[in-house]
Amino acid sequence: MEQVSDEEVEVRGEEEEEEEDSDKEDQDLDKMFGAWLGELDKLTQSLDDGRPEQPPQQKAPLRQETNMANFSYRFSIYNINEALNQGENVDLDALMADLCSIEQELSTINTKPNSAGSLARLGPTLYLLTHQASLSMDEAARQTSSHSLSSRQHRRTGSVGTPFHFEEQAAKLKADNIRVALEKIKEAQVKKLVIRVHLSDESSKTMMVDERQTVRQVLDSLLEKSHCGYSPDWSLVETISELQMERIFEDHENLVENLLNWTRDSQNRLMFTERIEKYAVFKNPQNYLLGRKETCEMAERNKEALLEECFGGSSVSVPEMEGVLWLKEDGKKSWKKRYFLLRASGIYYVPKGKAKASRDLVCFLQLDHVNVYLGQDYKSKYKAPTDYCMVLKHPQIQKKSQYIKYLCCDDIRTLQQWINSIRITKYGKQLYINFQEAMRRTEAAYDWSSLSSSSIKSGSSSSSLPESQSNHSSQSDSGVSEMTSSSHTRSQSVVSSIFSDAWRRGTQGEV
Amino acid sequence: MAAWDLSVTVEDLGPDAPPVTLSVASDLHVGGVILKLVEKTQIKRDWSDHALWWEQKQCWLLRTAWTLEKYGIHADAKLFFMPQHKPLRLCLPNGITLRLRACFSNPVFQTVMGICRMLNIRHPEELSLLRPVEHKKKKKDKDSAEEIYDLTEVPLSSVSRPCLYNGMPAHFADSPQMEAIYKMLSVTQPPPAPEVVAKQYRPASVVDKAHIHGRWLNSSRCLLQQGIQENDRVWLRFKFYAFYDIEPKYDVVRLTQLYEQARWAILLEDIDCTEEEMMLFGALQYHISKVSQSEPQMMSSNAAMDDLESALQSLEVKMEGESSSASEMLDNMTAPELNDYLKIFRPKRLTLKGYKQYWFKFQDTSISYFKSKEESIGEPIQQINLKGCEVAPDVNVAAQKFLIRLLIPAPEGMNEVYLRCENEQQYAQWMAACRLGSKGKTLADSSFQNEIQSIRSFLAMQKTNSGSHGNAPANDESINTNSLVSPRYNKKYKTKQLTPRILDAYQNVAQLSLTDAVMRFLQIWQSLPDFGLSYVVVRFKGSRKDEVLGVAPNRLIRIDLGVGDVVKTWRYNNMKQWNVNWDIRQLAIEFEGNVNIAFSCVTADCKIVHEFIGGYIFMSTRSREKSSTLNEELFHKLTGGHEAL
Question: Which of A179, A363, A399 sits opposite B274 (nearest CB)?
Answer without folding.
Answer: A363
